[in-house]
Amino acid sequence: MRKLVTFLVALLMVAGCRGGAAPAGRSFTDGAGRQLILGEIPRRIVSMAPANTEILFALGLGSRVVGVTTWCNYPPEAAGTEKVGDAWAPNYELIVGLEPDLVLAAGTAESEIVTRLEALGIPVFVVDAPTIEAVGQQILLIGEVTGASIEAGDIAAGIGRRLDDVRGRVMAAGGERPSVFWVLDEFLWTVGPGSFVHDLITLAGGRNLAEGLGLPYAQYSLEVLIEQDPDVIIAATLDPSFGPGLADLPGWNSLKAVREGRVYRVDGDLVSRPGPRVAEGVETVARLLYPEIFR
């Protein structure tokens, strides 16, 4: 009995000497509804989505991020981090070689990257924010998992305040909401209900022209577009070479948005990533839709 007590005391002393250690067996539910149990706060993290990378750096955890995807271009500090492919073509050998104690992924419980990494003994936490409102919740959860709850709370609260400000201004503006056509390419692919950007358009005070499609993404008919004649057209790209193909479409220049100079380009990363810059993305679109109240 005495030996057992001595062993337990020694074990507790060792655990107490581990700086930053989380309570053993802490359980978290990720965005895919999976249970993840971590004994310690993660110190070597691989991010498999640009939004996750932005969240980690915003939380002040950049020094713990040992791997990111080839698409992780923000913040600039992420540029020097080891690239491990992307969610569709991950470099599993490189990921394993980085010896992460946590991988933040996007997808579902059945996604290949989730099942393969877990089979290799690497903890995977799925982050899923399909709506604007869910972004703050996921940031709070990542903060809890990584031991940065205070920072996460500050970021989520800031996002909430800015989104409330946009809602208030749009509501005060009253009147009919401007119709928006969100163009992804010169083949008129657009966003519909169920997409993150559709939620952003709605929150920014717009009425998505493709709302009736019933699909997150679909190709729009030029004839229908001309018939519906949107108030505003937004292209999710800053590429100056994008656009000439649209101008060549029959009837494009007759559209109200084109005639009135309300065709805009926005940073596709800013408005499509469910990360800490989401409020800035909503404000950017709201400013284009309501320039008189978002100066």
Please describe what this structure looks like.
The protein is an alpha/beta fold and 295 residues long. It has two domains: 23-153, Nitrogenase molybdenum iron protein domain (Rossmann fold, 3-Layer(aba) Sandwich); 176-289, 3-Layer(aba) Sandwich (Rossmann fold). The protein is 40% helix and 14% strand. It contains twelve helices and twelve strands. The protein has helices at 2-16, 50-58, 92-97, 112-119, 132-146, 149-173, 196-203, 222-228, 244-247, 256-259, 268-272, 278-289, and strands spanning 26-29, 35-38, 45-47, 65-67, 102-105, 124-126, 179-183, 189-191, 207-208, 217-219, 232-235, 263-265. It has a four-stranded parallel beta sheet with strand order 4-3-5-6, sandwiched between helices. Strand 5, helix 4 and strand 6 (124-126) form a beta-alpha-beta unit. The longest helix is centred in the middle third of the chain and has 25 residues, at 149-173.
